[in-house]
């Protein structure tokens, strides 16, 4: 390429670049193509977060309801109240969500005259994990709740949340989170709640008497 040709080529190139820099045709389409995916990700992410928070609130409400129901009497039955009613309460409250193999732990807590809190009885379902406390083990109850001759029922509920929408497509890279909520309720009548279980029960739960 000769000198004049090179000069003309560079001049044409610069003129073309100036025209492109000054052109505004199609800018909206380009901006739309860039922003729409980002907005969709933000929208779906916000939706996923709001659904997860709703599920978490339901888990907390189910835990509180189980504790509240179990403290309305002076005796609880492993088969009727915990394996039966507690499980039904959890499933009904989290609807329309579902959670397979969710864990329930229920602990009866006795506070003596000296304000010492200990485990009176304990039960958990098959899906719950962790060690089983023994009757009489110390229980970490808050100091302002250690009123003499009081009784509490603690329910710990753990449920797995399944991602929705586009996160479901990459679930093999993600682990569904498990939400846990714990609640305490004080006995309504009297100063203790006893635990009973069937005479032919396969597992002897701490503090629960077979009848």
Written as H for each helix and E for each strand, in order along the chain, the element string is HHEHEEEEEE
Assembly of the depicted chains:
single chain
β-strand number: 7
Strand order of the largest sheet: 3-2-4-5
Reported for the largest beta sheet, the result is: 4 strands, antiparallel
Q: CA-to-CA gap between the ends?
A: 105 Å
Strand content: 15-25%
Ranges where pLDDT stays below 50 over 5 or more residues in a row are none
Helix-strand makeup class: alpha/beta
Shape: rod-shaped
Question: Averaged pLDDT, please?
Answer: 86
Rg calculated over all Cα atoms: 31 Å
Number of helices: 3
Keywords: Membrane, Transmembrane, Transmembrane helix
Transmembrane segments: 27-47
Protein name: TadE/TadG family type IV pilus assembly protein
Organism: Mycoplana ramosa
Characterization of the model:
- The chain is of the alpha/beta class.
- It has three helices and seven strands.
- It has helices at residues 3-22, 27-70, 78-94; strands at residues 75-77, 103-111, 117-124, 150-160, 178-186, 194-197, 208-210.
- A hairpin with a 5-residue loop joins β2 (103-111) and β3.
- α2 (27-70) runs antiparallel to α3.
- The longest helix is centred in the N-terminal third of the chain and has 44 residues, at 27-70.
- It is rod-shaped.
């Amino acid at each position: 390429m000769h000198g004049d040709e090179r000069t003309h080529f560079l001049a044409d190139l610069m003129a073309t670049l100036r025209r492109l820099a000054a052109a505004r045709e199609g800018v909206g389409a380009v901006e739309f193509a860039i922003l729409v995916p980002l907005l969709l990700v933000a929208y779906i992410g916000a939706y996923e977060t709001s659904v997860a928070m709703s599920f978490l609130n339901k888990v907390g409400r189910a835990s509180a309801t189980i504790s509240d129901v179990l403290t309305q009497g002076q005796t609880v039955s492993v088969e009727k109240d915990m394996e039966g009613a507690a499980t039904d309460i959890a499933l009904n409250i989290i609807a329309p969500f579902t959670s397979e193999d969710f864990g329930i732990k229920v602990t009866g807590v006795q506070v003596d005259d000296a304000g010492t809190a200990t485990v009176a009885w304990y039960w958990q379902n098959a899906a719950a994990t962790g060690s089983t406390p023994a009757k009489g083990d110390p229980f970490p109850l808050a100091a302002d709740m250690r009123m003499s001759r009081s009784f509490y029922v603690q329910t710990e509920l753990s449920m797995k949340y399944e991602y929705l929408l586009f996160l479901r497509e990459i679930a093999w890279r993600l682990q569904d989170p498990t939400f846990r909520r714990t609640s305490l309720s004080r006995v309504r009548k009297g100063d203790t709640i006893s635990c009973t279980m069937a005479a032919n029960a396969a597992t002897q739960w701490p503090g629960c008497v077979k009848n």
